[in-house]
Design goal:
Strand content: 5-15%
CATH architecture of the domain at 148-266: 3-Layer(aba) Sandwich
Order of helices and strands: EHEHEHEHHHEHEHEEHEH
Number of strands: 9
Helix content: 25-40%
Length: 292
């Protein structure tokens, strides 16, 4: 059996430089909006319960908002809150003209009906891209606030010169706010897409076909290095305790052509896209804006 030729170490797909560029442009637009209206773009975050990781994410997003001139409003509800109470909180924000974007921090603790809460967000304020209306627009290729992580990944791929047309892409994970919209975006970019999940047969063999792999399963170092097609582009959208992703980085980097680091790859782009969406919503240029 002939051994595969040795490959150079994978090139890192650093998400921080393109995120900085996007944040700088977002800050410019936020300042222009405030100068024109006298009020800043405003993002409201709804936090249900006391999950430490969720609280940390909310604080981090608030800091990033401040850095680019976006006002951050935090709405906290107890873990014991019923679905109706959480929905009512979102509806109050939806009716407030001073709030331009609404983010419901997930996961939402059981037994709150997460889908009912998401559907209370108006399309024009759905800056995190979680409503069924937004997801339908993505599938159809219509304008809308694409979920921030999938859109951040698409921008990261473009920033690193990855031409998706004709490539075989594999998405690991079928979450309605990550895996499924990610697959739709890749299809819209003319890639051939396989969406994998817990019932996929012989998963390593499927992954080995991928020119582009998007890993989003929420399991640390789940994807092994020998699953990677030599020269493939590997995007790790996972983030697990210990600052590790869903891909065994060392093993994958030995075979991949390009790979995202964790942290520093997908994460910075996700937050940058969220803030950009908030300013777009404030400008009235979102998916419900009237067409010229």
């Amino acid at each position: 059996m002939t051994a595969e030729p040795a490959l150079p170490a994978a090139r890192l797909m650093d998400g921080r430089p393109p995120a900085r560029e996007l944040l700088a442009e977002t800050a410019r637009r936020a300042a222009a909006f405030r100068a024109a209206t006298g009020t800043p773009p405003t993002l409201a975050t709804v936090l249900v319960g006391d999950d430490p990781a969720s609280a940390t994410y909310v604080r981090m997003k608030a800091r990033r908002c401040e850095e680019v001139g976006i006002r951050s409003v935090r709405v906290e509800l107890p873990r014991t809150a019923a679905t109706a109470e959480v929905v009512a909180g979102v509806q109050r924000l939806a009716a407030d003209p001073a709030v331009h974007g609404i983010l419901v921090q997930h996961p939402v603790p059981a037994p709150v009906d997460r889908r009912a809460v998401f559907e209370a967000i108006p399309l024009g304020k759905d800056v995190d891209g979680v409503t069924s209306g937004t997801l339908g627009r993505i599938i159809l290729g219509l304008p809308g606030f694409v979920p921030c992580t999938p859109e951040g990944i698409m921008r990261l791929l473009r920033a690193h010169g990855v031409e998706l047309r004709g490539l075989e892409a594999v998405v690991l994970g079928r979450s309605p706010i990550l895996g499924r919209p990610m697959a739709s975006l890749l299809i819209n970019a003319h890639a051939t897409v396989t969406l994998c999940h817990s019932h996929t047969r012989d998963l390593p063999a499927v992954v080995r076909r991928a020119d582009v792999l998007i890993a989003a399963v929420g399991r640390p170092r789940f994807v092994q290095g020998d699953w990677i097609k030599p020269g493939a582009v590997v995007v790790d959208a996972g983030y697990n305790p210990g600052n590790v992703g869903d891909v065994d980085f060392a093993g994958a980097a030995a075979r991949a052509g390009m790979i995202t680091p964790v942290p520093g790859g997908v994460g910075p782009m996700t937050i940058a896209v969220l803030l950009e969406h908030t300013v777009t919503a404030a400008e009235g240029a979102g998916p419900t804006a009237p067409r010229p």
